[in-house]
Design a protein that fits this description.
alpha/beta, single chain, 6 helices, four-stranded mixed β-sheet, disordered N terminus, Collagenase (Catalytic Domain)
């Protein structure tokens, strides 16, 4: 079920890390695609250890900035949770936790996340999808700029693609430390208290 009802923003691909960024038309005015891409690249680079003498395991991902309805529908269909959320991460090579009734749709259907045709075996991590309206609401509730919230959500989603989780306190501490490091590298403020 590809996100085909919006037009992608054309982006220049880096040979080392491919990060196509798609922004729903209603939000293009308030977001910088190069900035979004840099955030995703930084999270991808800092979130995985660099192997000695070889390229990193993951070199690309896809980032989409969407609306509430789209993110809620994806959350319902692919996680079994019919509720809004701020960020979803669909990893290419490991399934997320399905919390609904019955089998996960990815266990029986065609995979939802497919790498771009030229990236089939080139370290594609998956897709991060952020709800821009939810990002704005969280920023307003926290009393900080939406840009800071967006930076945190992208870092958080990319780290999920890389296999990080926050179910246990030690996992959460590791993930939050990496998020803080990613934000600091880009000069973004961590909006968490």
């Amino acid at each position: 079920m590809p996100l085909c009802y919006h037009q992608p923003v054309k982006t220049a691909a880096s040979p080392a890390r491919r990060i196509p960024v798609q922004v729903f038309p209603a939000y293009r005015r308030g977001l910088s695609v190069p900035w979004l891409r840099r955030l995703a690249q930084q999270a991808l680079a800092l979130g995985q250890p660099m192997p000695k003498g070889g390229p990193p395991r993951y070199r690309g991902l896809s980032l989409t900035i969407a609306d509430d309805d789209t993110v809620r529908r994806l959350n319902r269909d692919y996680r079994g949770l019919d509720e809004p959320t701020d960020v979803l991460a669909f990893a290419f090579d490991h399934p997320g936790e399905f919390q609904g009734e019955g089998p996960s749709p990815t266990a029986t259907d065609v995979p939802f996340i497919l790498p771009p045709s030229d990236d089939a075996d080139q370290g594609f991590a998956g897709e991060v999808i952020v709800s821009y309206p939810q990002c704005q609401r969280q920023a307003q509730a926290g009393g900080h700029p939406a840009q800071d919230e967006m930076a945190l959500l992208i870092a958080h989603g990319v780290l999920h693609l890389l296999g990080y989780d926050h179910g246990a306190p030690e996992e959460e501490a590791t993930m939050q430390a990496l998020e803080g490091r990613i934000l600091a590298q880009l000069g973004a403020r961590d909006p968490r208290p």
